[in-house]
Structure formats: C-alpha cells, structure tokens
Amino acid sequence: MRIPKVLAYLFWDCDPNSLDPHEHAIFVLDRLMSHTDEHTVAWLRVTYPTDVLLGYLYNEGTRKLGPCELEYWCATLDVDETLRNRWLAAAQARMHRRRAASP
Length: 103
Description:
The structure is a single chain. The protein is mainly α. It has one domain (about 5-100). It has five helices and no strands. The longest helix has 21 residues, at about 80-100. The radius of gyration is 14 Å and the shape is globular. The mean pLDDT is about 90.
C-alpha cells in the first residue's frame, strides 16, 4: 500500500511514492496523526491496525500531537480516561510553554 494522492501534499519534502507505510511507519504517522480530516483518518484506520496506532500514541504521539489531535485519537482509540487526561494535561502544558517562549 502506498500513500494516497489526496495525502501526498503532507509529504512535501520527500517523494511519497517512495515511502512504504509499514517500513516508514513512524515518519508516516508523525505526518498524518496530526491531520484528523476524513481522508486521513480513513486511510490510517485501513492501513494500520489499532495496536499500531495506540503504540504510536504511547511512544510518540503524546509528545508530538497537539491537545486537539491527541483528544481525537484518544477518543477514537478508546484510551483509558485517566491516561487520556494525563496526556492532555501534558500536551496543554507543552503548548502553553511554547506560546510563552515565543517572541
């Protein structure tokens, strides 16, 4: 399976046709998990099993996704409410730190 043309614009700095979604899963998920439009979500759900998407959230997404995207994926993937709340608090704090540090 390849990156669909409708999502190719998200890979502006590389050739999306050269990406294997499974071999380059972290790179692909980094780009796509922050876009929760219907095309992206549908392709992610078909391409990756739920355990891969959850694994990304646990290992990468909690540090990389914004609060809105994190909330969406936690709800979609049925993440435990206590864990979801902890992740969201950390994401919101990270966002506030970035805003405070910007000129």
